[in-house]
Amino acid sequence: MNLKSILVVRPSMPPYEEYIREIKDLWNSRWLTHSGPKHQALEKKLCEYLDVNNIALFANGHLALELAIDALGLSGEIITTPFTFASTTQAIVRNRLTPVFCDINEDDYTIDVSKIEALITEKTSAIMPVHVYGNVCDVDRIDAIAKKYNLKVIYDAAHAFGVKIKDKAIGNFGDMSMFSFHATKVFHTVEGGGLTYSNSKYSPVLARLRQFGMVGPESVPTIGTNAKMTEIHAAMGLCNLRHIDEEIAKRGLAMHRYRELLSGVKGLTLCDPQKNISPNYSYFPVLFNKKEFGMNRDEVAALLEKNNVLARKYFYPLTNNFEAYEGMFELQKTPVAMRIADNVLTLPLYADLTVKDVDMICKIILQ
Ligand code: T4K
Questions:
Q1: What's the pTM value of the predicted model, to 2 decimals?
Q2: Separation of 184 CA from ligand 1 center, angstroms?
Q3: Are strands 168-169 and 284-288 parallel, antiparallel or unpaired?
Q4: In whole angstroms, what is the distance from residue 90 CA to residue 99 CA?
Q5: First and final CA of the chain: distance in angstroms?
Q6: pLDDT digits (tens, 9 = 90+) for 340-360
Q7: Residue closest to 310 by CA, chosen among 345, 269, 268, 354
Q8: Are 110 and 136 contacting, i.e. CB atoms less than 8 angstroms apart?
Q9: Rounded distance between C-alpha atoms, residue 156 and residue 63, angstroms
Q10: Is 10 near ligand 1, meaning CB less than 6 Å away?
């Protein structure tokens, strides 16, 4: 990688002066963490922006996911998908529960709801679907299955910040939704994450879990960890949130250009926009079919790299194929996920990626 490389993602930054103004008062207050005023202000603003009743903030999205499992008291098996970032599966396994892998849809790569019921056993306690790339899962059918079998639902909404289904904001489905505010995400706090949920009874539970299980200096009723968001991180969030609509619109322009240039090219499969969804343009995955296009995914990635464009294979390998889980899962049980993972390349997409950059990337691919 050199400084001129185009990376798969690039963090959005607020104006420097704005951030400095935002953190200036910390030098007087000396209140730097532990749900301080900026943390509280960010919670309030995010509830408004995400149109949810409750949000709890965390040091990162992964810990939020681990603690969601804990807060909901899950046990046994959780049905999920392997076409995701390591975090989704690791959160289940680190809670000493068993992931049960369901295959994904051919078109949007989210969980194939028609295959969920066959995976339910007496040990199943929850479903953890992923709104992968910001593509929305079939929330209505997942809700119906969860109700029928009395299961909890935690959405991994790490990629879905600001997405809406018709007029309903994405954080309002299931028992909880986890958003990642990592530097590489549509909205970020450098590192950070949030859980949205409609039942306020979880607020004190989550607050305790992220603060060592403590409720005061002399009372520790639960086993917890340290997963708090600092004031410095919350300040970055407050700044970034002021510019979020503009940043999403800029991503939209880049994605629109990709679609103009790559739609209809033989051997390339793009992920079509979903109906009735307000998107956030978080990732731009493309499937490459060697027989029809002439190059496979790895060859395209290598060609781009030669030209200083560093695309990524999100998400390869599948999580059920990780060395860490050797011998635990049968890859063959998720054949669609396997095929997508073997052929997908996620092209660069971020707010500051210009149409000229997109033209250049597409020219390399199509040359
Ligand atoms: N669930 C899902 C579905 C997720 O995708 C994720 C995270 C999580 C849960 C967990 O959320 P967090 O705990 O992370 O909040 C990156 C991100 O680190 C990760 O947040 C994200 N998903 C995943 C999809 O992508 P890597 O291993 O690819 O990161 P890395 O360091 O290789 O960075 C990717 C690109 O970004 C590189 O080209 C470099 C560039 N970059 C990176 C950083 C850190 C920058 O330009 N600036 C930076 O500061 O995981």
A1: 0.98
A2: 5
A3: unpaired
A4: 9
A5: 22
A6: 999 999 999 999 999 999 999
A7: 345
A8: yes
A9: 12
A10: yes
